[in-house]
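Exercise 7. Predict the structure of Nitronate monooxygenase family protein from [Mycobacterium] wendilense.
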Amino acid sequence: MRTRFTDMFGITHPITQGGMQWVGRAELVAAVANSGALGFLTALTQPTPQDLTKEIQRTREMTDQPFGVNLTILPSINPPPYGEYRKAIIDAGVPFVETAGANPVEHLADFHSAGIKVLHKCTSVRHAVKAQELGVDAVSIDGFECAGHPGEDDIPGLVLIPAAADRLTIPFIASGGFADGRGLVAALALGADGINMGTRFLCTAESPVHDAVKAHLIAADEHQTDLIFRPLRNTARVARNAISRQVVQILSDGGSFDDVRDLVVGIRGRTVYETGDVHAGIWTAGLSQGLIHDIPTVEQLVSRIVNQAESIIENRLRTFTG
Ligand SMILES: Cc1cc2nc3c(=O)[nH]c(=O)nc-3n(C[C@H](O)[C@H](O)[C@H](O)COP(=O)(O)O)c2cc1C
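Solution. The predicted structure, encoded as tokens:
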């Protein structure tokens, strides 16, 4: 399936695996690259920029296909050394970066001078248009269905994607709620040039998380996520569990971030992935978990999505036009 996105990034399939904290490591990203899709290592999963350099090297030992790095820029009291992570990405000669979380303007010129293509992920048409004006190469737009940060506008993909298509001239991909070939065809029909997935890749054989987490995703349906941090206007969609319920309750009762700080620390989320105790902390999952019923290899998943999409276009859709 050839689109403006596959042409620009030189990949075979119009599918990306977005950054995933604690999950976007060499094993998964190399498998995605080997499948002909585009995977992104998650820079901040690595404790230091030097560790990121090593992780890029480790990925290269597992694939000769291109891959990228996600740089998530979030407001923080003690921000990570973003400039040093940026330099590690540039020095390693990585061809693609996915920026997310905030306006990428501070990083764009350096990435572009190094010949790196920047895919900026955002959650609203106005931010997508802004990123286009800043000169990013492509946009990934996350609908309300997505895992992680959906923003505060609550616009699902069915409206967000065509609204973005009306305003963007650069290639863009649709993100949030995609898990199969039906979603890929829908995204293309709505005007996108491909899809980005997180939750679906979280539940693959190469995803470096405990099997109990994958079993939980298969058992859960589309109802079992929570939106935490809503009153703080920093909403995150996460897997519903004992901790997420507590956080929602405390904040809706008027609590402050300090009242939930210990519950939401990142290390607890990491424990979930490492030990399989799905109630140990906050971990990220989207509505697409309702469409997940198995643990394929990445190669099986990507070829299944593309084959299903092609079959829908050639068979089901054709019947409507005679
Ligand atoms: C476990 C997990 C961790 C994530 N961490 C990040 C992150 O660190 N940075 C980021 O930009 N997006 C992150 N995301 C969001 C994904 O990159 C992607 O935008 C989102 O999952 C798309 O929605 P979907 O899960 O419905 O496919 C994460 C998603 C998951 C499932």
